[in-house]
Amino acid sequence: MEKVEEIQVQLSIRAEEANEGDSHGHVNESNQSTSHQTRKQVFWIRIGFYSFLVLSGQAAATLLGRLYYEKGGKSKWMGSLVQLAGFPILLPYYLFRKKKYKIENNHNSYMNTNTLPLQSKKPSMLTVASVYLVLGLIAAAICYLYSVGLMYLPVSTYSIILASQLAFNAFFSFFLNSHKFTPYIINSLVLLTISSVLLVLEPSSQISSKVSKGKYAIGFVCTVAGSAAYGLGLSLMQYFMNKVLKKESFSVIIDVIVYQSVVATVIILVGLFASSEWSTLREEMNEFQLGKVSYVMTLSWIAITWQVFSIGLLGLILEVSSLFSNVISVLGLPIVPIMAVFLFHEKMNGIKAMSMVMAVWGFVSYAYQNYLDNKSSKNDNPITNG
């Protein structure tokens, strides 16, 4: 009888252990599921935040840039400079990062070095400097070309042409970042290209009386060229961050913005003084139709809003891809032309309306392909890294 009782006790203990094991298994599965859902939610919150910065920053900066020229601004180099000169507002972040770095080092000093993960080989200082030099040169070219375009074109026409950024970005991403072309992507690129080409047919009666046909053509060519340089710049940013810098953090975003802005700002300052436009700035401020204070505030807010846009743009590149960040930028396409009708009394003729519809259609086509990729993807990342 005693042996029977002992056997029963052992069986009951084993049953309890099995039940505890099952319960722990269920708890682990539940925790993993909750953790997965939390990561997805945090991811989408970041995407939403960066998208808001892109859309709001781009619309505000473009409209303020046109306001500068509309009310008496004449300097193309100053219009270029303010697109970059706002980077000092990001410098306090380095104080925060330095403090955080000290705290992490103190924490890691108590850890066993054998448990620390292996660090990947860092690129040389010369390589990193070369990256920022290339990005800075491209950024300076983009800002100058866009400044010329915004000076000579109605802001609605200018904004619609910017949709061609997506086509150029996809083209360069195909070679640099192995982006695949699908029927929907090709359809999107064709529509965006036709959208820009249609604006060449805009009747001369719709062109501002302040701008000659020759200057309008220069503005059109410079905006298209700026869009091509912009698409190349975004693709190179993604390539450099993934293949050269090999880092994925918010610090990388700030570093890229600040260092490329330093290089580009120096280049544009050289252009500003070499062209002698700096000598006319005081006169320009005195003749600004809204007054001296408004002149300074307009340029200051252009600089700030472009930095807001840059943070959002590079955040989307880091989280998803350069092409996706450009798609979000194109999503804000209808905002500027519609607001320009009310703020600057620009006319929305049939060609502009058709061009805008085709640009939005091109965006929808790309967005649908992105939805298909998302649906078929088995990765944790809800958006396919194109």
From TrEMBL:
User: Which GO MF terms does the UniProt record name?
Assistant: purine nucleobase transmembrane transporter activity; purine nucleoside transmembrane transporter activity
* Compartment(s): Membrane
- How does this protein lie in the membrane? Multi-pass membrane protein
Q: Which InterPro entries match?
A: EmrE-like (IPR037185), PUP_plant (IPR030182)
The answer, when asked if Phosphoprotein is one of the entry's keywords, is no
Top-rank taxon: Eukaryota
Q: What stretches pass through the bilayer?
A: 43-65, 77-96, 131-152, 158-177, 184-201, 216-240, 252-274, 294-316, 323-344, 350-368
Q: Which GO terms describe its cellular component?
A: membrane
**Could you tell me the keywords of this UniProt record?**
Membrane, Transmembrane, Transmembrane helix, Transport
Tell me its family. Belongs to the purine permeases (TC 2.A.7.14) family.
Question: Which protein, by its recorded name, is this?
Answer: Probable purine permease
**Protein species of origin:** Cannabis sativa
